[in-house]
Amino acid sequence: MVDLATLIGIFGGLFFIAVGITMTPGSDFRFFLNPASVMITLGGAVCSTLITFPLRDLRNVWRVIVLAFREERAKPAKLIVDFRRYADIARRDGILALESVTQDVRDPFLVRGLQLAVDGTDPEMIQTMMRTELEYIQERHNRGIRILKQFAIYAPAFGMIGTLIGLIVMLGKLHDPSRIGPAMSVAIVTTFYGAILSYLVATPLAEKLTVRNNEEALVKEMMIKGIMSLQSGDNPSIVEQKMKIFLSPKPQEGRRWE
Amino acid sequence: MVDLATLIGIFGGLFFIAVGITMTPGSDFRFFLNPASVMITLGGAVCSTLITFPLRDLRNVWRVIVLAFREERAKPAKLIVDFRRYADIARRDGILALESVTQDVRDPFLVRGLQLAVDGTDPEMIQTMMRTELEYIQERHNRGIRILKQFAIYAPAFGMIGTLIGLIVMLGKLHDPSRIGPAMSVAIVTTFYGAILSYLVATPLAEKLTVRNNEEALVKEMMIKGIMSLQSGDNPSIVEQKMKIFLSPKPQEGRRWE
Amino acid sequence: MVDLATLIGIFGGLFFIAVGITMTPGSDFRFFLNPASVMITLGGAVCSTLITFPLRDLRNVWRVIVLAFREERAKPAKLIVDFRRYADIARRDGILALESVTQDVRDPFLVRGLQLAVDGTDPEMIQTMMRTELEYIQERHNRGIRILKQFAIYAPAFGMIGTLIGLIVMLGKLHDPSRIGPAMSVAIVTTFYGAILSYLVATPLAEKLTVRNNEEALVKEMMIKGIMSLQSGDNPSIVEQKMKIFLSPKPQEGRRWE
Amino acid sequence: MVDLATLIGIFGGLFFIAVGITMTPGSDFRFFLNPASVMITLGGAVCSTLITFPLRDLRNVWRVIVLAFREERAKPAKLIVDFRRYADIARRDGILALESVTQDVRDPFLVRGLQLAVDGTDPEMIQTMMRTELEYIQERHNRGIRILKQFAIYAPAFGMIGTLIGLIVMLGKLHDPSRIGPAMSVAIVTTFYGAILSYLVATPLAEKLTVRNNEEALVKEMMIKGIMSLQSGDNPSIVEQKMKIFLSPKPQEGRRWE
Amino acid sequence: MVDLATLIGIFGGLFFIAVGITMTPGSDFRFFLNPASVMITLGGAVCSTLITFPLRDLRNVWRVIVLAFREERAKPAKLIVDFRRYADIARRDGILALESVTQDVRDPFLVRGLQLAVDGTDPEMIQTMMRTELEYIQERHNRGIRILKQFAIYAPAFGMIGTLIGLIVMLGKLHDPSRIGPAMSVAIVTTFYGAILSYLVATPLAEKLTVRNNEEALVKEMMIKGIMSLQSGDNPSIVEQKMKIFLSPKPQEGRRWE
Questions:
Q1: What distance in Å separates the CA atoms of residue E160 and residue A114, rounded to the nearest whole number?
Q2: Which of A26, A132, A230, E178 shows a CA-CA span of 20 to 30 A to B235?
């Protein structure tokens, strides 16, 4: 259920950075912990994001981010197998028999689609309703992606602002030369935080969600196609054929590289 | 009425920066106040913006910026409820009875639309007039957005110019080494101002107004649809159904995450 | 006639920079004057621009730049008033009477259009000819804009090249430490010149001309519409109505903010 | 079979960098080898890429990268000669005789196409199937290209993060001035690694694959055209003429420069 | 024949840089000559370009670059005069008489077009063939432009890599402070080379070729139009009129600025 790649990526990235720090002669993890830097980078970037987007979109952003940590549910191949079974049931016991099937389906989008077919809703109407809902889901995810992308811009900007603060203070008090080094060290930590937040967290998550969003649209388009096919009374192999158009042709051949 | 997110964002961002400054050992707020830096960053960026845009667009920019600090007025859900009521009145007492309703409506765009319907203007004509006005409103807001975005480019550029000035003066007088630090500190304050103006103020406001502008267009499109529906004598539930196309389908189901 | 905003912007920007310099303790205007820096930044950027564009486009660039310093001539509101008058004359004394009117018109585009109408040229033909000429004018201005934008890229690049030259020379002769500061000061002046040329001059002018070009296209489209209307014998109020489509609806209402 | 340009480019680039290092007075290759830098740059960039893309796309990336090291197989000119021969065979011995030809063809895409023609599949169907497969191949390659481009963004970012780590540690321990230089040297190696990974490896490979992808699409379009032509029973010279449309006209004349 | 603007631009730019160097007090041209820097910047950027593009495109790049140093051949105005003459000849002596004219024409594209007209090729066919050839020429030039643009990205990147090498070596050997300056001076020369290659050579040439390519397309479109007109037996003034559509209207009026 958990998307291991995302977890391994983030913790692996932090691990490599930590090992890199440990391997640097004379290093000390305390150099890299600075509450003031956290406040400026994270606080500032969050505040700028808060200005940018309506509150209700920001409340949704967590639910979108969570998606990047979850393995995608719908496998196109399994979906086709399921639809063959639905087509079998519909042929044998009539389309009303699909009512029972919806109990086991976990994707609410698919449940709604099947229910509409069972209810005998007009096909054109089903298609319009499902496509509208698909667009709405995509739009909500896109808002989450835009928020992450904007955060990825603000985080290094506030990292730089924090470093400027450190430099200004340090240079303003250049009476005690022994403090120059440590002060600059602290100043640069802010840029370091900004870069990690942007390049290890926000940008990769935003890109992953973009890839996911495109895949989800494809799977949901397959569902719509399948439900249309079910309702028109197609036999199982026709249902399968119509849904396969969305898949790569002959995946087994794909192994032979062309 | 006030958009708290914008206020909290700007003041929160300034607060985090101020706390960050306070937490930096040996810091002093006076290091961060420098009239010369204000003149160069703000004055220079304003002047470049003055060259870029016609004066009449610049006079409008304040009115557009103010929108980013105001909670949006029109709530789509409430709008549909209102239109159901208008449809009820129109059905019971004739469309002329809507005249009285316009007294309570505060959005001048909607008032104008209802008035046109009451006056029995040709439907096609109403649609053309309202869409033209919508485009004009959008265009005016877009001009404000473009001004903010351009200012967000100029501010850090003049921040850098100010820092260059400081460096040139400091290096040109490198006879008294004890003054290097403070002079550079002052020089860097200009870059600091430019970064804050761009990343905490101009960019987030421009992005927020862009998001707002798209939402406003949607709401005003709903109004046009509703007025068309009212005028054609639709009953309340048809008016509602026609306007709901613009909304996300089944928002209550949206809670179940798909 | 002179566009005050452009002049105030450029001189205001230079003024703020000059004041900023004056307010920097220990500064000296001579630090900011360096013939070598002028040669590298301006000479280099001009030469790169010379390579980029055909000579005949470069000869035109001054005439395009001049436009940024001139108040736009055609006021849409006044244009409509004028056309009402032309329509009046055409109605009373026939379209040939417009011949005399062209004496007082200063926009050669409009003169040509009116002349074509007076000559009884085929309406379709007038429209094609005027639109072709409009496209040509736009294209010529766009070339000027592209030249300014390219110059705005080259100027800071050569500013950086000049600073690199200064650094290389200074570091190559690091025997006399007392000269480091002044030498670096000179080196950085080149970057300073490049930034001002790009951010206070070339970029704002290019953006202003882009805004202007769009406005001019609108006004000239209004003229074409008006001439078409005149020639088809429309009465003054129809001419006015047809031209007003290009204007914002009910500008007086615009004051009430929506 | 091996694409010499890619190999010469990468090893040549490394060679020039190595020579440049050798020619720098007082250099030592050990300065440029630092395990901590490798871990941060390579490890970090790989981890961020791991977050960004689904695992199955990442497993494919090697097969796509390999393509950049292989000379492209299909030469358009040779392809036309082959198709003339196929057309000859089909004319003499019937289209079924092409069955034997497919033994010698190495491109599985072409084999599949010829087989479909031999099997007497409906022409429209062949075209749809082959174009779908072509789109799928292109899409798979595009995913590899997107991964490389994203890696080219992450590599210098983690290079910078590694340099920040080195700077923070070094400045935090500024008690022993004799160690400043070597510590900074190590810090900068990370940026050096990031720049090489991005500008000598990932970016050029991604760009090459983009160019290749476009060429491959052209060749495969030619194959589809050729198979369509074969199946409709065209004579060899018509097959050739139809396929030549995809080639540059009169390549021999191309020598004369116009 | 030689495009003076390109030559003056490149040599002028180098001249201003040389003068700038001379005017810098204490400079020495030897500071700016460093074989190691040449190898890294030029060698590295060429190698990355070698990876990026197919060898056959790289072999063509010189022929495309040469175009930037040649005055464009076809003058639209002269072309129209020529076509009037051709139309005269065709009217008087029949279209076959144009055979002799092709002797004096130097543009192979035009020769081919006229020959096709003389041969009595089907007009539609001529148009298809000439437009295909035009697209091919444009595509070949575009490849050269893409190579230059990519080189303009790689050159400063390898300039930076060279500077990093210099810094790493210098800081790694910080035992002899007297050598810091000269070593850094050498390091920065690499960035200097990269900037000049990109901003004075590759970028301006790529942009110039883009402008040229668009102009050439226009002229060749005029030729196609002219040949079509010749073949359909139009009289000289009709040929002229049809070709003039591609020109700016009334260039003599253009002088009066609008």
A1: 60
A2: A132
**Distance between A111 CA and the closest CA of chain B, angstroms:** 11
Residue D99 reports pLDDT greater than 90: no
Cβ contact A31:A185 at 8 Å = yes
- C-alpha span between A34 and B23 (Å, rounded): 10
| Residue E190 predicted with pLDDT over 80 | yes
Angle at A75 between CA A6 and CA D144, to 5 degrees: 55
Residue type, C195: A
SS3 E2: strand
**Subunits adjacent to chain B (3 or more Cβ pairs under 8 Å):** A, C
Chain B residues with CB under 8 Å of A164 CB are 188, 191-192, 195
- Angle ∠(D92,D95,D98) on CA atoms, nearest 5: 95
Q: Residue C50's CB: how many other CB atoms inside 10 A?
A: 21
Residue C49's contacts (CB-CB under 8 Å, 6 or more residues apart) are C58, C147, C150, C151, C154, E9, E204
C138 CB burial (10 A radius; 0-12, 13-18, 19+): middle
Residue C31 tokens, joined = 């630090």
CA distance C254 to chain E (A): 31
CB pair distance less than 8 Å for A172 and B195 = no
CA A167, CA A37: separation in Å to the nearest integer?
13
E58-66: which pairs have CB atoms within 8 A and are 24 or more residues apart? E58/D5, E58/E147, E60/E140, E60/E143, E60/E144, E61/E143, E61/E144, E61/E147, E61/E148, E63/D257, E63/E144, E64/E140, E64/E141, E64/E143, E64/E144, E64/E145, E64/E147, E64/E209, E65/E144, E65/E148, E65/E205, E65/E209
Name the residue among D133, D162, D183 with its Cβ closest to that of A249. Answer: D133
Which of E128, D167, C106, C131 shows the shortest CA–CA distance to A182?
D167
Q: Report chain E's terminal Cα–Cα distance, integer Å.
A: 33
Rounded-to-integer distance, Cα B74 and Cα B51, Å: 36
Contact B108 C253 (CB under 8 A): yes
Tell me the per-residue pLDDT of D130-146, one tens digit each, with 9 for 90 and over: 888 898 888 888 988 99
CA distance between the termini of chain A: 33
Residue type, A250: K
Contact C174 E189 (CB under 8 A): no
Q: How far apart are CA B20 and CA A162, in angstroms?
A: 8
E200: nearest CB among C44, C166, C179? C44
Closest by CA to E64, choosing from E142, E153, E132, E154, is E142
- Contact list, E200 vs chain C (CB under 8 Å): 44, 47-48, 51
DSSP secondary structure letters along D134-159: HHHHHHHHHHHHHHHHHHHHHHHHHH
D256 in helix, strand or coil?
coil
Token pair recorded at residue A222? 């397959």
Cα separation, E24 vs A24, in Å, equals 41
Query: B160-195, pLDDT tens digit by residue?
Result: 998 888 888 888 776 666 667 777 777 888 889 999
Element (H, E) at D220: helix D203-231
Beta strands in chain E (DSSP E): none
Alpha-carbon radius of gyration of chain E:
26
DSSP summary character for residue B39: I
What is d(CA A172, CA A167) in angstroms, rounded to the nearest whole number? 8
Closest C-alpha among A152, A160, A154 to residue A203: A152
3-state secondary structure of A2: strand
DSSP letter (8 states) at residue E202: I
φ, ψ of residue B41 in degrees (nearest 5): -65, -55
Residue A172 has pLDDT above 90, yes or no: no
Confidence of residue B252 (pLDDT cuts 50, 70, 90): very low
Task: Look up residue B78 and give its amino acid.
Answer: K
Q: Which two tokens stand for residue E39?
A: 């190898």
Task: Decide if E189 contacts E34 (C-beta within 8 A).
Answer: yes
> pTM higher than 0.90, yes or no?
no
Residue with tokens 């615009």, as numbered in its chain: C254
Strand partners, E70: E2
